[in-house]
What does this fold into?
Amino acid sequence: MSARKLRRPRKASRTRPNRVLLIEDHAELAEATAELMRGEQLEVRIASTGGSGLEMAETFQPEIVLCDIRLPDMTGLEVARALRAIPGTKDALIALHTALSERDLRTFEREAETSVNVFLSKPLTPEKLDGILTQFNVLRRSRPF
It folds into this structure.
């Protein structure tokens, strides 16, 4: 009887994003969130306002954008709508995150139309990040690229 090396079952292949734009005005939270995402081998850029995030998006062309709902210069919904108008980000997965109450969050969800893919409460946890990456994979499979 020959000894066989046991193989671990492979996880289902998943399309992996490379570029994530994090738009968050709270510096400490932005760094902690970025570190979590970098732990998943994601290239993360941070912007602290909606305007600077939109400028960065034009050249960086993120595949995922995680944006605070309340920014100093605009709302996350305004950022999401503007991102959909930029050719390099029109198909990005856009997730809005907030510390708002569930009731307030539902108001934003109703106003979001189709510009936002995911709404999350803060802080970003490994489980929530995994959910975003799974949603990214579902989105990519449903679109012919």
